[in-house]
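Practice problem: predict the structure.
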Amino acid sequence: MLNLLRPKRPEIALLDPGPPQEHRSALLQAIAEAVYRLRAGLTPSGPLPDPVGAAAMALFDALQARDEANLKRTVGLSIQASEAMASFSRTTVEVRDIEALVQSMASALQRLDGSMKNLDAVGGQTRTVMLESAQLVREGAEAVGASTASVEQIGEALRKLADRAAALTQATAQITEIVGNIDAIASQTNMLALNATIEAARAGESGRGFAVVAQEVKALSGQTARATEDIRRRIDRLRGDTDGLGSCVADAETAMERCRRINADAHAKMSAVEETRESTAERMGDLFRILGEQTDATSQLAATATSISAKLAKTVQYSHAAVAACKQSETLVEEQLADFDNRKPRDYILHRAKSDHLLWKKRLNEMLAGVSRLEASELADHRSCRLGKWYYGDVEPAIRRLPAFAALERPHEAVHVHGKRAAELFARGDHAGAYAEVEKMEAVSTEVIRLLDQLIAR
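Answer:
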């Protein structure tokens, strides 16, 4: 049975004391042998004198107490080293993740910096276009003004033309009236010529000369009638043309009025466009100024992110160096713990189990940090580890009856389950899942350490 209680003092038989001179060398050799066997948990091979036996037991007790103290210090050092190793490994993981994020951010900022510079270039082109548009707007406004002036001039000319057309219509009416008078006179003259002809015929030979004159007057009257008829037809055509001209002038005046309104509306809109352009140009100027500032800020951020990424890469290297240094100290601690295997101080298994569990945690965090490889097959189950072999072995009944002993089984098993699961997930590339399993393992591992401390302090 594994004895975790304080070892009992072996019974030592006493010899009769002999002369010191004769037995000094033998006694010293016997004491050394007795202490060695006592520390190894064996019974001395022979009896010792009472004073010597008492001294040997006192020396044994002192060495046992020193071994227990050294074991606690060594295990404490192992725990601290394992915790530091786990922290360094976890820090390495976090820093490496931050480095990846910063590198991604630096790349994004560099792309953003390029986009901002392109936008600034586009802003310069926009400023040029705005200036050109301002010139075009001014030219358009001037053209609209010139068009309005031309429309006014045309309108004035049309009004004069309308006045002339009205005057022509009035003159045509007067000519028509005159032609009517001439036509009436021609008709009367023709009537007079006809009467003269009749009278000449009555006069006979004496009226022949008068008949000739009457004939000429009649002929002249006919010509006058035909001329007045031609003039009347021409005046009618002129009147129609004058009326058409008046209608065209009226239509032109209507169109000119519409053109005048359109020009006025266009001028008002061009003025509004100019005001909007000026306001837009002012806002664009503010925007371009802000874009310039943002471009400078983005460039600085990109440079800062690149610098941070480089420093994080250095930090990862330093973390790896710290992990390597911790691994060297771990080797020294393991060698020192191995020295206690032969002497088995009190509660050696329980102290060693605490160290084993912190080493388990450290190895899993090293795996997450990529410092070392760890396969699930390398990890023992909760029955095959040092603590498991003791727990399911021949434990003293006094310890088995303790509540801490009964409560130890489930969290101890969970530590191994979560640890093996973390190694399996990490091997499959599911780093997030492995990370979660390690956190679960650390939570139950804390409970295991707490219960082991209760057993040690019983």
